[in-house]
Amino acid sequence: MRIANIGAELGSDGAALKLCSSAQSFPASFPRSLVPYFLVARSWRRPPFQWTMLSFRKFISGGLPHAILAAGGSATQSREAAMHSVWFGEFMGTLVLVLLGDGVCAGVTLRKSYAADAGWMAITTGWALAVLCGVVVAQAFGSPGANLNPAITLAAAVSSGDYSMLALYWSAQLLGAFCGASIMALHYAPHWRLTPDPVAKLGVFCTNAAVRSPLANLFSEVVGAAMLVVVAASIYSHRVSLSGPAGGVGPWLVGSLVWGIGLSLGGTTGYAINPARDLGPRLAHAVWPIPGKGGSNWRYAPIPVLGDLIGGALAGLLLHFARP
User: Fold this and answer.
1) Predicted model pTM
2) Which architecture, in CATH terms, is 147-322?
3) How many CB atoms lie within 10 A of CB 171?
């Protein structure tokens, strides 16, 4: 079973977890962007996943490049490590996801936009392509698993029993979503004052129920998030294809999955299916001085966060026992 998480990318036989003395001695399937991390892990005599959590603290504090230099790496390796890490990959991927996803909502909603009133098909298609772009950016910048979603990260943790990566992933995802929404708001700066409806403006940033019914809304988010995790895991399952999807095909399939969820299940709550995608932009809406905005509807905010995490956890349990 291969779900979109770093453990899956390292291989089920554990061969890629061996600490090697040089980049050339890593298996061919091992992500090249992670080689500097595991080389440093060897020099520090730390287990790889324990070192990954330490690398997060080092990255935030600016100490990671110095650690690689101390381990005998070159200045080039140091610069690459600063800009290619699991944390930075998740941050960049989620930023792109939300920038493009909220961007299509803005284009359809805000007045004097050429895309105004383009409709639900445009929104679901835009979000599907936003997922595709976010995934490939995350992988390019150092996160081979490209979760971009706390619900997927939680599902992977529940399935594997390893919760040590949650803080690293969730912080990057939430900050990336906030920054993506902030850039989107600036991009559409002249259009906010031309759009009179404050509820419509909030809908550009985050989701809301079409019909207010808290239990039904929560259930909708649970189902949507669970479907995302289960089908994404099935796409990468070795029972579907022994070697997994061909190179570069996986992100397209996941984007298509999100497109399908939006078309089939998104009409009730706007299909957040991602706590960071909803909470990060909602925070941006609350913080920035958007002309004519209203409240950020914090009364509804727990539903897409809790519902998606519950859906992810339930899907993780299913994957743990079923092993697709």
Assistant:
1) 0.77
2) Up-down Bundle (1.20)
3) 17
